[in-house]
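If you are new to this repository, start here. Below is one unmodified record pulled from the training split, so you can see the exact layout before writing a loader.
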Amino acid sequence: MTQLHYDATHEAIIIVPLASPNDEDFQLWANLFLHAPAITIADFASGADRHQLRFHFTDHTFNLNFEHYSESIWINAEGVEAKQLLSKLTDYLINQLQ
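And here is the target side for that same chain:
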């Protein structure tokens, strides 16, 4: 099962999936992972070693990031108000995974 951990020090949600997605499959994986009633997908950006899917939760913007070489996946917030919601977003996503 995918594990999520809110890292308050780094202001990020660390995601450890059961199996990491392939570089070319991250967009599909991200859309399936974030498929939830309170989340709206905004846009996707792909780079040589990093991908990012922007999304909205409670009218605030967040980024789901994937770093290809380290196979790291995390969510960060855009803006001070969104950062205050990272813990709430973590709880919401954990409930959606159950």
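Two things worth knowing about this chain: The longest strand covers residues 39-46. The chain is about 25% helix and 40% strand.
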